[in-house]
Amino acid sequence: MKYPMTKQGAEALEVELKHLKTELRPQITQAIAEARELGDLKENAEYHAAREQQGMVEARIRDIEGRLSNAQVIDVTAIAHTGKVIFGTTVTIANVDTDEEVVYQIVGDDEADIKQRKLSVNSPIARALIGKEEGEIVAVKTPGGVVEYEIVEVQHL
């Protein structure tokens, strides 16, 4: 099964993967070789630390490769703007009661980061917004009750 991912999310993973493979992996291999030269491996803290780091880097490489192989990369900038909220769009919404505006980009689960205003496509807010258009009012169930938001603007950034 393929999972949606923004073009920016896929590019960020590819940059990290390249860094891990071309910079960190050779550094760790070198550190292991140098630690081996120090002698007895049983009590060689440098060797064990380098091997542990190698295990973490290799696990991260496998994780990223798995995510990329299962990703359906969506470039929202290549999709015609209709004013409708779809995966990858950046949405400005305003709380109907307070007029407080907030901007979110709707992204895949792996990319979601509320601090960066990136909402998972599976979050309650995103699910309420998907398919709606600029000017529409949507009701979002929150722990504090139902909150109504007006969709102010939909952008394909």
Written description of the protein model:
The protein has a five-stranded mixed sheet with strand order 5-4-3-7-6. It is elongated and about 70 Å long. Helix 1 runs antiparallel to helix 2. By secondary structure, the chain is an alpha/beta fold. It has two domains: 72 residues, Helix Hairpins (Orthogonal Bundle); 80 residues, Roll (Chitinase A, domain 3), CATH 3.10.50.30. The longest helix has 31 residues. The mean pLDDT is 94. The two termini are 26 Å apart. This is Transcription elongation factor GreA. Belongs to the GreA/GreB family. It comes from Halopseudomonas pachastrellae.
Number of domains: 2
Distance between the termini: 26 Å
Gross geometry:
elongated
Number of strands: 7
Tell me the fraction of residues in β-strands, as a range.
25-35%
Largest sheet: 5 strands, mixed
* Classification by helices and strands: alpha/beta
| CATH homologous superfamily title of the largest domain | Transcription elongation factor, GreA/GreB, C-terminal domain
Radius of gyration: 22 Å
Give the topology, please:
Layout: E1 3-6, H1 7-37, H2 45-69, E2 71-74, E3 90-95, E4 101-107, E5 118-120, H3 124-129, E6 137-142, E7 145-155
Parallel strand pairs: 1-2, 4-5
Antiparallel strand pairs: 3-4, 3-7, 6-7
Helix pairs in contact: 1-2
